[in-house]
Structure formats: structure tokens, C-alpha cells
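Exam revision sheet. Question 4 asks you to relate a sequence to its structure. Input first:
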Amino acid sequence: ILCQVEAGYNQESGCYEIHTGDTYRKHSQVFISYGNHDNYHLLVEYGFTLPDNPNDVFQVEYNDVLNAALSLGVDNMEKKKEIIQQQSFHRQLVCSMEGMSWNLLLVTRILAMNWTELEQWKLVLTGFAMSDRNNTLSRQIARTFLTKYIKQNQDLITKFDTPLSPNTVESMVFSIVQTERNILQLTWTSVT
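Answer key, C-alpha cells:
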């Protein structure tokens, strides 16, 4: 049975509260769904994490992908950005244990296109490989931004004092950072 709920932090009580208009008997067990969230969002919103959370992702910034392409001398950037933004491919750019999201893959492939390929950009929506050159440059773009993120992640990991006390916020944050490292390493492997 689904019910409508209101949930949020109550400033007056200092607690996270969930209210429903439905009636339940005293001491009844009531279940809620937090939804499909990665551990970062679960920790920030609800104060806990899940081991081996299948929803864990690493968020990739669109500007980091653009900067990676620019650093490799990619041309026709304005036209490519126009296509990417008109189609909303610049949203939901993530890496997971399965590699790059479809949108992230599309963005790197569009940025790697030469002018002739760009005229037929919709072919990438079918999974069509434009050319060996496009595939190679797309992977170089990905390796460039992944290198930056892996370095940042390594720097972050070294800031933690180990061993950590279990079930503390610090240990949960460290676990998230380690998961991000694993995601980045798996994604790196997929583009080399």
C-alpha cells in the first residue's frame, strides 16, 4: 500500500521527520522507501550508507569533459556543444561499476567527431562507431578527465587517518571515497 508522505528536517525538534495522512495502529510496523540513491546522497540526506550499493556512481562534470577535449585540440567545439546541450546529453554524466553512462559515452563520441562525422552525429545514438579515429579520440578524452579525477581521489584518500572507527561519519565518507576510486579505476580500464 502506497501512502503520501511528507519528509524533511524539522528545525524545531532537530530531527528528520516523516509524516503521513494515513492512519496506522499504535506500534504497527511501517516501511518507507528511500528510493534509488547512491551512498553519497544516502549519507547527506539520511545519515547512513549501504554496503555494496548498486546505485553508487561518480558524478562527472560537463566542463571537465569539455576541458579534456580542448586540451587534446578538438575543434568545432561550439557546434558540438550546441548538439550536446540541445539533446540534453550533458546531463547525468556519471561513471558506475559498469563504466561510463550512455550520456557520457555520447558526449565523448560527439566531441571526438570531425566535421564530416558531425554532420551525421545521430548515428552514435544507435551505437554506431563513427571511425577508428573517433573511437581513439573519444577514449583519450575520457582518459584525460579520468586521470584528473583519479589524482584527486588519491589525494583525498591520503587525508584520512587510518584505522577508522567503524560506523562513524568519517568511516562512511572514507567508504564512499574508496568506492569512487573503484569506479574510476574500472572506468579507466574500460577506456584503455
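Marking note for examiners. The longest strand covers residues 5-10.
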